[in-house]
């Protein structure tokens, strides 16, 4: 991960923190993963990842109303959510 590019991108999108961008990058590298799997991949507390995922899902990160992820329920167990990037998030991450 290029930290300088990450900080520059965060400056372009002031509502996207470096943590949020890092989460989006991790989702991009592990699409279809669960919150638990994502937290293990990132080496971050699951509760922190879940909070960031909730903000992204609700459109409270980035520009107001922009949903940067899609969350789908796991077909065999409705308690598990699978996380995917939206096209908007992909365009943002292409700038890295």
What are the main properties of this structure?
globular, 16% strand, 5 helices, 2 strands, 96 residues
What is the overall pLDDT average?
85
Helix/strand-derived class? alpha+beta
Strand content: 15-25%
Uncertain stretches: none
What is the chains' assembly state? single chain
Tally of DSSP helical segments: 5
What's the shape? globular
Order of neighbouring strands in the sheet with most strands: 1-2
Number of strands: 2
Global Rg: 13 Å
Estimated helix fraction: 40-55%
Strand and helix order? HHHHEEH
Query: What summary fits the major beta sheet?
Result: 2 strands, antiparallel
Task: Measure the end-to-end span.
Answer: 9 Å
Describe the structure.
The chain has about 100 residues and is an alpha+beta fold. It has helices at about 5-10, 20-30, 35-40, 45-60, 85-95; strands at about 70-75, 75-85. Strands 1-2 form a two-stranded antiparallel sheet. The radius of gyration is 13 Å and the shape is globular.
In short:
With 96 residues, this protein is of the alpha+beta class.
Outline the fold blueprint.
Layout: H1 3-12, H2 18-29, H3 35-42, H4 46-58, E1 69-74, E2 77-85, H5 87-93
Antiparallel strand pairs: 1-2
Helix pairs in contact: 3-4
């Amino acid at each position: 991960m290029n930290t300088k590019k990450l900080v520059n991108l965060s400056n372009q999108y002031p509502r996207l923190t470096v943590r949020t961008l890092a989460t989006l990058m991790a989702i991009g590298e592990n699409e279809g993963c669960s919150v638990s799997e994502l937290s293990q991949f990132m080496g971050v507390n699951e509760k922190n990842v879940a909070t960031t995922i909730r903000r992204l899902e609700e459109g409270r990160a980035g520009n107001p109303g922009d949903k940067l992820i899609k969350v789908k329920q796991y077909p065999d167990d409705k308690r598990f959510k699978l996380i995917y990037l939206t096209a908007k998030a992909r365009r943002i991450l292409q700038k890295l």
